[in-house]
Design a protein that fits this description.
5 helices
């Protein structure tokens, strides 16, 4: 698990790392099934574990940094539509409540990984350049999950 306190505010945001995860899940997978949201949370936690072991550093260190790393999750890219949507999550939004529960389980280490160790994911209706020629490990709830070689 991350060595940063999950309840402490992330510098410059006023948000806890767990809330950053919940927002990421909402913006990237909130319209998908609970299983897909759980799988995305597991994918992010796989990145956290790899970073903690000293493997991958370009994602950053700690849960919030990994969610907010440049060009990793479109919802944190200021020019992307998902970022604008994430800035106006409706109060009491049921999908956000689900994402917060999943984020809490993931951050506590109580979420199993249905992806087989994935580090990357995308909506099945999209094909980002990094996925071209890559074989997915799993397809869950309309999302594809991959484990890319550590570079």
């Amino acid at each position: 698990m991350s060595h940063l306190p999950l309840a402490a505010p992330v510098a410059g945001t006023g948000l806890s790392a767990q809330e950053v995860l919940a927002m990421t899940l909402w913006a990237e997978a909130g319209t998908h099934s609970v299983r897909a949201i759980e799988a995305l949370a597991a994918t992010i936690m796989n990145r956290v574990r790899l970073a903690e072991r000293g493997g991958v550093t370009h994602w950053g260190r700690g849960l919030a940094a990994i969610c907010r790393a440049p060009f990793q999750f479109s919802c944190w890219n200021r020019n992307h539509l998902r970022h604008l949507l994430m800035q106006s999550i409706p109060p009491g939004d049921p999908a956000m409540a689900v994402c917060r529960r999943i984020a809490a389980r993931a951050a506590a280490g109580a979420l199993t990984d249905p992806t087989g160790g994935a580090t990357h994911a995308h909506d099945a209706g999209e094909l980002p350049p990094w996925a071209v020629g890559e074989a997915p490990l799993a397809e869950i709830g309309g999302m594809l999950f991959y484990r890319l070689a550590v570079r």
